[in-house]
Amino acid sequence: MSVIKTIIVLAVIYAVFLFSGYGVTVGSSENAAGLGLKCQYLTARGIVSSQYIHSDSGVIGMANCPIFKQVGEVVDNK
Fold it and tell me: What Pfam families does the annotation carry (predicted)?
């Protein structure tokens, strides 16, 4: 029974990501001599990358990648 519940929960999470256009952070790395921050988000359509200006304090740029981010086209938005 627990395998079926797990599959149902994963299907619901997939549907939420598909119709909302949001993604969850799966990776990040600093680039451009530490001035850039590359964040990778897992969405229902695949992995999407975003670039941010990086600063440790977060005053001018981003200190860390946001956990959730709306990343582009939504399936039911035409």
Answer: YobH (PF13996)
Q: Tokens for 28? A: 């990040």
CA distance 60 to 66: 15
Which of 17, 10, 28, 23 minimizes the C-alpha distance to 68? 23
Mean pLDDT per 10-residue section of the chain, whose length is 78 residues: 91 88 90 84 87 84 87 57
Question: pTM of the prediction?
Answer: 0.74
Three-state DSSP at 76 gives coil
Joined tokens for residue 57: 């304090």
